[in-house]
Amino acid sequence: MKLERLYNYSLKSTLIRLIISISLIAVIVGLILYISFDMYNTMDSQKKDALLNAKLVGEYSAAPMIFGYSDEAENILEKLVTLPAVTEACLYTTESDKPFATYQKTSEEPYTFPAVQEEKAVYKGRFLYIFHEITYEETRCGTIFMRISTLSLLDRLIRNIFVAILLLIILLIITFIVASHQQKVISKPILKLTALTEKITKNQDYSVKMEYTGIDEISKLYKEISLMLSEITLHQHERDKAEEKLKKLNEELETRVNERTSQLLAINKELESFSYSISHDLRAPLRAIYGFSQILSRRHRDSLNEEGRQYMDYIVESSVRMEHLINDLLNYSRLGRKSVEMRPISLQKILDNIHHDFSQKLKEVGGKLIFEGYDTEIYGDESLLQQIFINLVENAITYRRIEVPLEIKIMCVTNPDSYLIKVSDNGIGIPEEFWEKIFNIFQRLHSDEEYPGTGIGLANVKKSVDKLNGEVWVESVVGQGSTFFIKLPQPKNIFQNV
Amino acid sequence: MYNQPQILLVEDNHMDVVLTLDAFRETHLQETIHVARNGKEALDYVFGKDKYSNRDEYPMPSLILLDLKMPGIDGFEVLRQIKSTEMLKRIPVIILTSSKEDGDRALSYDIGANSYLIKPISFDGFIEVVKKIDDYWLSLNINAPIK
User: Fold this and answer.
1) How many domains does chain B have?
2) Domain range for residue A492?
3) What is the pLDDT at residue B3?
């Protein structure tokens, strides 16, 4: 508690208080000792003086006492008037306890003289009592008594204390002045240090110069802090350098990534425009081949023999396949260039369209399309979603098993942060090693004779899902069917506002 | 002769011209088809420049079939000029192209195409398109009076 209270004062005032209190205690103790010693000495010398006087008066009074001249004796005692401190005195003969002759300085208060006592000198109350045996020529002839006032002693004590208090006050002032100056020796460097550290914490600048000279503890502290600061500065410098380096590396990496991205984008764009122009430019000659071979087989079929007719049919068939291929390629390149328009879309509407588009085809192959949980509104681009379903349903129809009636099931599950769309069929299935590869363009698992296809359909699905920031994958059991999973992100805020 | 619908076919690909003409012939329709081989010829025709000033031989078409991708002046430019000419803007223009591109479709309608058809790939397809054009644009649809 006391320490805490000490901490509430500034270093400066604490130091001043400390110095003053130490010097005051020392001086007070010294003064008390001095006064006590002085009093003791004064009392001792008074006692000696009184004894000497008693002895002198006694010697003078010896003769009257021996001869019984009390008047003579009182006359001698009267001489004591020259000693103002002596208030009463008397003489005793050896024959009686009663005083033989008495002396009183003032007769205002009659004094009852004590009975004779043996040799002594004692302080009692405000007086010194003296009994002295008088001897004359080796013969004891009586006793002298004196009562001496100690007022002078008290005066001296009061004077001493007054001087001491005066001295203390002067000392207090001097000590305060000196301490105020001297405390700076200790407090100044510490206060300076405090200010410095405050500045350092405030500015976060560790490169402050600390000046220090001397070998005392504060200089040592300065030295240590200075060392610490330079250490920190060094670390900071290293850290800054490392940060700089990291930043530079980051920038380099970013530039490289940007370069690579733009390269990839350029390549992608080139590829897309390439496939676009190929598909367009291929269309014109294809139209000629297809169109004219159709005219030939329509108008001139009879003028051809069996072989000619068959070959003509081959040309027409191949043209149809090529038309599909070109259409799919065009679709693929169009998807790549398409801008994505995300908005809430009714899944039902899309699936109704799909159902309508495929109803004829499904009737032909004897299959059915089942929807579950499709009354949801999902967030996406309508034509991209359309592309996904068209290609997946087309795929399911193409790779159906002949022995069982085709059943395509489309399900939509809404999760807290995503939609999961499942498109399952009971078709021929896909071996596990192709589960990823089938989404690559032109990746085919079967020959055209087995299952006609272009190898672009699932690539279109993948591209569409990518554009919607989703994921697509497949799980399948060969000979039982496949399930395509499409996970699309759900933007929560859009639906919270609805 | 003037009672017969006059069609101007603007097409740079010779094979496509032959196929289209053949399809019209196959359907035994009454229309007279005039062919412009490129954008410049098409504009010369409609504006009656040089030999096309003879309107007896090259009468003003009542319907234009326009290809988009042509060297030099392309289909868009032809369409733009027709639609910005007071005298010609009411003639229905049907785009007949192999492009399904969003941009091509949007631009065509923006500058005033009346219809947008995809060129069929087969001869059967051509016949169907030609029949439908005849059914709709030359029979069912009532055109604005030509100025």
Assistant:
1) 1
2) 340-497
3) 63
